[in-house]
Structure formats: structure tokens, C-alpha cells
Amino acid sequence: MKESSQTNRLILAILAVVVGLFMVIVAQILTQISMERVVASLVQVSQEKPQYGSGVPLFLVFYPLWRTFIFVGGIALILMAFPIYKGSEWTYAAGLLASAFPSAGGMFMFLPYVSWVEGFPIPMVICWVGLAFFWALIFLRHADKWEKWAHFFALTFAGMLATHAFVVGVGSLPARAGLRTLMTRPGQPLFEGLEWQVLTIVGPVNWLCVLLLIISIPLLANKKLLGWWLPLISAVSILAINVPTQFIRTKTLDYLYGSLLAIGLLFFLLFPKFKKALLGENP
Predict the structure, then answer these.
(1) Angle in degrees, 0-180, between the axes of helices 254-270 and 145-170, rounded to the nearest 10
(2) What is the pLDDT of residues 225-243, one digit of tens each?
(3) How far is CA 187 from the centre of its chain?
(4) How many whole angstroms separate alpha carbon 181 and alpha carbon 185?
(5) What mean pLDDT comes out for the span 4-31?
(6) CB neighbour list of residue 92: distance below 8 Å, 6 or more residues apart
(7) Count of CB atoms within 10 A of residue 5's CB?
(8) Among residues 90, 281, 82, 55, which one has the least CA distance to residue 175?
(9) Are 140 and 14 spatial neighbours (Cβ–Cβ below 8 Å)?
(10) Residue 173, Cβ neighbours under 10 Å: how many?
(11) Residue 262 half-sphere exposure toward CB, CA atoms < 13 A
(12) How far, in Å, CA of 248 to CA of 259, rounded?
């Protein structure tokens, strides 16, 4: 960050304050509005499709959870503004992590609008604002062009894969995946067949990979070898569980989408030019 121009550091510092205030104030209001719309729509839909009813308690937990991460991330960005302007190196990795919360959280909260919520997808605004700072931090920081593009693709795909993996674990899309489906399965408390048994594996694996991918963001930004291995392990793990699950549960393409994102992340981690830029002098 110290090698970045004073103008770029000033722009990033101002953005940190503006985006941070958005996350602390505006995003909290937008999340509340979105949560009420999603739950109200879900209650209405579940009258015709009872299996959707399990989503109500889940969204009442996960919307506030993401809102909490976004709030704390916003506070972090505001506090980081002056160190960013001064060129403190640690602010690059920390700023990426803080802005990843609204990017991923906004995308997760948006997905119900695809299935059953009408109107403008409000959470996308939260996602866009987070991504704006995330990408600005990558491209306004002084670095080699290969490093910038490696961080752009690898970190963006890591965030996208983490978001999708979280969705698969919850089951935000039509009720064919995740915890929401397990809660309404036939034959409870038993599991009637492999198509239900596999959900007890694929969801937890995806959720664990979400944690590993989030942890990897600041580590990869700092060119730590562990930061490269964590997304590699996550992508391979998701592929290893999503591919067979897709063949077992053929009524949805959710697992295929996750597999494609994992393949994309693997490409940007393993492509020699990108790998060298991501790891620097590390072996």
C-alpha cells in the first residue's frame, strides 16, 4: 500500500468511510426490509408448497447473521480509513476481508428473489457496494498487473464459491437442496434412500468450505502459502461431493453450478502465471 500513489490512497480512504457507513447504516435497513419481504413471501408460498415453510426459521437466523458480519465489517472499514491513507500494508488484506462480507452476504440474501420474491432485488445493492470497494482495493493498489488480475479472479471466484456453497448448505433455491430440504423430508426422522442421506454430507462439507474460503482471503492477499492451499482444498472438496450429489439428485442443477465455480477457482489457482503472482517467492 505504501507504494500506491497518494491520490489512490486518498480515494481508497474516502471509499472506506463511505462504504463503511453504508454497511453500518444503509445495509442494515435494506437487510431488514429484504428479510421481511422474503419471510412474508415465503409464508404465502408455503401455503401451496408446505415444504417451503422450513425456510422461515432459517432465514430468520441467517439474514441477521450476515447483517452482523456486514455491520462489523463496516466498522472495520471506517477504522481502517486513516491507515489506508497512510499506506499501512495490513489494510490491504483486512480491507478485502471486510468488504467480502457485504459482497457475499448481499448475494446470499438476493437469491430468494430468484425463486419466490417479487420486486427489485434489494440485497443486490449491498453486494454491488461491497464488490465496488473489493475491486477498487485490488486495482488501485500499486502492484504488478499479473498480481492484480490474479487477485481479482482468484479472490472473486473464492467469494462466489463461498456464497454458493453457503446457499447449498441452507437450500435457498427451490426446495431440492440443503438443510431446508432435510427439514421437510418424508419419513422423518429416518432417511428414505440415498437421495436424502447424501444431503447430510453435501451440506456440511459445503459449509466447512465456506469457512476455509473466507479465512483464505486475507491469507492469499498476503501471499501466504496456506492462503493458496485453503481454497485449493475447498474447491477439490466441493467438486468431490457436488459431482456425485448432482447425479444422485438430478432435479436440481445447484451442485453442477457449484462444481463449475470450483473448477474456475482451481484454474486461477493453478494456472502458472497466476500461481506465481499469488505466491510470490513462496514455493
Answers:
(1) 160
(2) 999 999 999 999 999 999 9
(3) 33
(4) 6
(5) 95
(6) 1, 137, 141, 221, 222
(7) 11
(8) 55
(9) no
(10) 20
(11) 24
(12) 14
